[in-house]
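Predict structure. Chain length: 538.
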Amino acid sequence: MATFKKTHTRAFAKSTTKATADNIYWRNFEFPVTVKEFTAINYVDVRPIEPHYIAVTSGPKIDVYHEQTTQVFRSLSLFKKGAYGGKFRKDGQLLIAGAEEGHVKLFNYRQKNPLRIFKGHVGPVHKADFVNGLSQVVSFSDDKSAIVWDIAEESRVCTLNEHKDFIRAGCASPASEHIMLSGSYDHTVKMWDTRTGSSVLSVDHGSPVESMLSYPSGGVFVSAGGGEVRVWDAIGGRLLSRLSQHHKTITCLALASDNKRLLSGSLDRHIKVYDVSTYSVIHTLDFPAPILSMAIAPGDSTLAVGMISGGSGLISFQHRKVEKEKESEISNKAASIRNSVMEDFKVSPGDIIIHHEEKEKMTQYDAMLRKFQYSRALDFVLRRHITTKSPNITVAVFRELLRRGAMKSAVAGKDTKTLAPLLTFITKQIRNPKYCRIIMDVATIVVDVYSDSIEEHPGQVRLFRRLCEEIESEMRLSREHVALMGAIEMFLNASLSQTNTPRGTLPEAGMQQSYHMHMDGVTEESNNMPQVIVDIAK
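Prediction complete.
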């Protein structure tokens, strides 16, 4: 007796991108721990040495979080209006921050009271940084000036005031204690020498500068603002690279992976990871809200991201996954017993080996097809979980019923409730190029079977009207495509014929003939549409 031939369900391979080592590395973070704040997170910084405390500046306070527990270790709240840009010194002992009232405050992060308060700005100070020599700090203000302060004497060293708009970004050069960088809303980035008190380099970013950083060598700096990140040569001011991967304003920058990766965060809720050797995007991190600030711990152990959501702030902490050691191992005694038992069952020459063959289980729709239960098989593959997750199975059963000539008997005798899944599936998949040929054959049979009884059931009229609208939309699109093909062919024929026709004559007749041949084909196709569908549309 011949065995039943299973229904061949051909599944189309999904297009996938090959995961690179960088993709795997940047996906290897645990599920984020999210903390909600009352105001936006304007700055995040990580303590450079262990323990890597995380300073989160939000509203009138700076919260210092523990890296592992993500609990507040210390809260610095002695600000009258607002705090900005809380940043650790590279030795991890002190923390500097700007204030809404124009002051710059220096803290020991373990104590609530500030050690120094630098007064001199007349506008809010949104950014402050420690100078390379550790004995000075620099502040950048909305009063269009940058001021270098001496920590020990709590006095002003020099004032840098060549900008024409708010200064919202800036940093001290990590290679020299005399070089400062500032980015302003006047679209410029300036390099300053504190020994002369004036700028030695000025470059145009092209949009308001929101963030900037300098590479550890001091030879390259990066500015961000608008939708672009620009990389500059610090010696000659030459533009090295322009990165336009975000579609909203870029708000923050960071270096990661031992300064081999550049990170940019934006209001488009993405963080882009760039390879600094090629400045190509190697990975994208997605977040639930627009990003205002970010920081990453040494060794990429923790990524902290500050966001804004509906007027309130969100801080997200993501820790890198650590491979857990095996909980238990098999004892030597148990292993030796298992090995001794297995030795008794080694195959010897002359032994007959019988392979166990598991009987393959037949699917339910194949079992129904085997019993010639065509209507039941059709209803089974039209269940929602199959049509949504595995439409190829439904189409495979369609193909088998068409091959057997049993589609008409399978669709006949259905009421509105049982016919609805079939018409819904046809309407949804009739434009799918993978299945359109089979779907059109099934649609024609359904229309032929129910053409005489459609008007008796109002529910069926509604379903067939939807099918009609979908077919008309597809045919309208086909007409446009064919018309476009005809127009393209006219231009191609014209360009080819100009080389073979005398000067002053145009091959208009051939062009018109080609166009009308295409349009006649579409008109003929539309005339072949079943009359019952035309009547339903009316």
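Summary: The CA atoms of residues 105 and 135 lie 15 Å apart.
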